[in-house]
Amino acid sequence: MTEADKLARFEQAVLPHLDAAHNLARWLARNDHDAEDVVQEAYLRAFHFFEGFHGEDGRAWLLKIVRNTYYTWLERNRRHEAATAFDEEIHSTGGEAVSPEAVLVASADSRLLWAALNELPAVQREALVLRELEGLSYKEIAEIAGIPAGTVMSRLARAREALKAALGTRLQPGLAARAGKESQP
Length: 185
Known about the structure:
By secondary structure, the protein is mostly helical. It has helices at residues 3-14, 18-29, 32-48, 58-76, 78-83, 88-91, 100-119, 122-133, 138-145, 149-183. Helix 4 packs across helix 9 (138-145), helix 7 (100-119) packs across helix 10 (149-183) and helix 8 (122-133) packs across helix 10 (149-183). The protein is elongated and about 60 Å long.
């Protein structure tokens, strides 16, 4: 196989999954700049090892490389990762709303969800992002993370419970404040 053939096959198999790769890296790294570094390194690794790719699911294969690249990057930059702030602008969802009130409610809900998700440990965020945002099966997640499918299921269950608890904690002060206002004459 010539280098041009390898490049053409690589582009066909892997490049369509760039958005999924960036999404996973962004959630793991917690900022767009670091995610771009991780994805760039992952694509270089993917191209370097592309001869080992035998036509299986290109998306799962690439996401596994992105995941492994992130953890390698994290080891090199551990001090920086702990100090990185979550950027709401990067992770907020877009969309057209009907009214200013709807925009405000959607924005508040989105910030609340993203902030709660950001509190989860990386392995739980990873599992939720792969399952809920990327729509991967348990089997695909197990392959990417290098863990049994049962572990994926328990990790997702724990992640969902932790997310529920984080959302509950964030919602409690707002509910208590509204209840106090409603009981005043």
